[in-house]
């Protein structure tokens, strides 16, 4: 028993037009919204990949244990810096380096500070000698009215006032030893003893 077949003639042109009509519907079209930054953003992304791509691939190959060692070292360094700063803040100046005024306020004495610096140098504490002699020099500048001395006076402020290469050198040594952790040496102490009188002399000619 054979099945009856129905043959329908289709016009190819009509079918093509119908397909174009269907595809012209907005559902089948991408958004025509302009994207003027697409080019520049793609260029930036390509440049960043050129720079950081190799770095990222290298870091991916670093063993995890190395990262843990790095993090532990970083934490230890931060703790060391915090302890150092706190120790500097809570360390009081030597008793013989200050005297009490009538109102009970601490008034530092430059001569006493220099004597303490000499004692520190003889005992081998060169860092303390550098710090004490620097403070004594600032006090003498304050006594002469060259600067407005106070315990919190900043070296940058004094630099701008004096504009002295000699003082800049002394201040650089003081900051490196006091805040930068550099070990003080005998030439640092000798320079402080030799240069401070010249700084004071220069300031008196202003």
Topology:
Layout: H1 12-23, H2 38-60, H3 64-90, E1 98-100, E2 106-108, H4 110-122, H5 126-143, H6 155-162, H7 165-178, H8 186-204
What this model shows, in words?
This protein is mostly helical. The chain has 2 domains: 49 residues, no CATH class; 97 residues, no CATH class. Helix content is 65%, strand content 3%. It has a two-stranded antiparallel ribbon with strand order 1-2. A hairpin with a 5-residue loop joins β1 and β2. About 9% of the residues have low confidence.
Q: What is the gyration radius calculated from CA atoms? A: 38 Å
Uncertain spans, ≥5 residues at pLDDT below 50? 89-106
**Mean pLDDT value:** 76
Protein structure class: mainly alpha
Our count of helices gives: 8
Can you give me a brief rundown of this structure?
This protein has 206 residues and is mainly α. The protein has helices at 12-23, 38-60, 64-90, 110-122, 126-143, 155-162, 165-178, 186-204; strands spanning 98-100, 106-108.
List keywords for this structure.
mainly alpha, 2 domains, single chain
């Amino acid at each position: 028993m054979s099945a009856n077949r129905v043959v329908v003639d289709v016009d190819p042109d009509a079918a093509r037009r119908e397909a174009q009509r269907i595809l012209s519907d907005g559902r089948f079209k991408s958004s025509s919204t302009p994207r003027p930054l697409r080019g520049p953003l793609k260029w930036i992304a390509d440049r960043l990949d050129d720079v950081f791509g190799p770095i990222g691939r290298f870091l991916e190959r670093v063993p995890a244990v190395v990262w843990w060692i790095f993090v532990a070292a970083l934490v230890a360094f931060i703790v060391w810096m915090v302890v150092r700063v706190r120790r500097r803040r809570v360390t009081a100046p030597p008793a013989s380096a200050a005297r009490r005024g009538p109102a009970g306020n601490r008034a530092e004495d430059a001569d006493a500070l220099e004597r303490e610096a000499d004692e520190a140098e003889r005992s081998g504490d060169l860092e303390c000698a550098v710090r004490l002699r620097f403070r004594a020099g600032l006090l003498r500048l304050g006594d002469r009215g060259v600067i407005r001395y106070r315990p919190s006076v900043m070296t940058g402020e004094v630099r701008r006032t004096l504009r002295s290469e000699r003082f800049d050198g002394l201040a650089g040594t003081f900051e490196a030893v006091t805040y930068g952790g550099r070990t003080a040496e005998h030439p640092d102490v000798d320079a402080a003893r030799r240069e401070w009188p010249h700084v004071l002399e220069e300031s008196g000619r202003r």
